Amino acid sequence: MEKYTVIGGPTSENLAQKISKKLHAKFLKAELKIFPDGESKITVNRISKTKKIIVVQSTNPPVDTNLVHAFSLIYQARRMSSEVFAVIPYMGYAKQDKEFLKGEIITISVIAKLLKAAGATRLIVVDIHSGKELDFFKMPSKNLSAVPLLANYFEKIKLNRPLVVSPDLFWKNKAKEFAKKLNCPSIALNKQRNRKTGKIVIKPSKFPESNFQDIILLDDMISTGGSIVKAVEFFKKKNCGKIYVACTHAVLAGDAEKKLRNIGVNKIVSTNSISGKYSLVDLSEIISQTIQKW
Ligand code: R5P
């Protein structure tokens, strides 16, 4: 019996292929057909009994559809193996991990139950929103960090007195870790989001005024781009140099990309947790190493 089979879901085929090469595994591509009524028909041919099956499928937009694909692939894999690794580099719904306003449903806990019910036995995610969501998944899980890889990428760019900035206090330590690699300062802005309207404000914060030129905005994800736009507006008033954005997940919902271009972002660098033109940092090495060591 083969040790590993890797199934590449429709959102993550390239990444899955890379992981499969590193694991010397058999690679299976999921075939997708969408019916006129919107239902998906997902097929995996030649799936055979394997010790461990790895299903790679990020759940970026359309989130609900891509989740159904993940559940279906995991379900099919479980029929052929007692060990099914759900590799979901970008986990949608992760921000819905609390009842922030009365009556809100903690949807990530529903997703966690469905993933287990479908047949996943282990879970690998990358920079999941807070990390606390993993408590909902009642299975062994790993939350990998892409920050060292993003920092490695920026080490190769010629920067002028960079300052690493987390747009919110949440990633303060990640910004510090990133900046340490580049041997430069870091700060975290005090971003507040109105839970009802979604409006973002940045409260004034202290930082090394004269000591920086280029800005590297580091965040777990860019969704609507609203957080980055606010942070850029804040720094534009301070006459900064070039503006770079580094993120793990380039979700880029709606016209996010246009907003970032219009505000003057010079370069966006993300991982291939979501495949696209900005996915310049490859996660396959850390994911395959995690699988091998586990
Ligand atoms: C928020 O806590 C996250 O770390 C991101 O800053 C946020 O999800 C980005 O969303 P948007 O691009 O819509 O502002």
Describe the structure.
The chain is of the alpha/beta class. Helices cover 30% and strands 27% of the residues. The strands form four sheets. It has a six-stranded parallel β-sheet, with helices on both faces. α2 (63-78) packs parallel to α3 (107-118) and α6 runs parallel beside α7 (256-263).
What brief labels describe this structure?
30% helix; binds ribose-5-phosphate; globular; alpha/beta; 294 residues; 27% strand; 6-stranded parallel β-sheet
Describe the secondary structure blueprint for this structure.
Blueprint: E1 2-8, H1 13-23, E2 26-29, E3 31-34, E4 40-43, E5 50-56, H2 63-78, E6 83-87, H3 107-118, E7 122-126, E8 141-144, H4 147-155, E9 163-166, H5 172-182, E10 186-188, E11 190-193, E12 200-203, E13 215-222, H6 226-236, E14 243-250, H7 256-263, E15 267-271, E16 279-281, H8 284-293
Parallel strand pairs: 1-2, 1-5, 5-6, 6-7, 7-8, 9-10, 9-13, 13-14, 14-15, 15-16
Antiparallel strand pairs: 3-4, 11-12
Bound molecules: ribose-5-phosphate.
Helix content: 25-40%
Q: What structural class is derived from the secondary structure elements?
A: alpha/beta
Give helix and strand order, one letter per element, not per position: EHEEEEHEHEEHEHEEEEHEHEEH
Strand order of the largest sheet: 2-1-5-6-7-8
Number of alpha- plus pi-helical segments: 8
Number of strands: 16
What low-confidence regions span 5 or more consecutive residues with pLDDT below 50? none
Query: Could you tell me the radius of gyration in angstroms?
Result: 20 Å
Shape: globular
Report the portion of residues in β strands.
Answer: 25-35%
**Amino-to-carboxy terminus distance:** 19 Å
Bound molecules: ribose-5-phosphate
Mean pLDDT: 95
Biggest pleated sheet? 6 strands, parallel
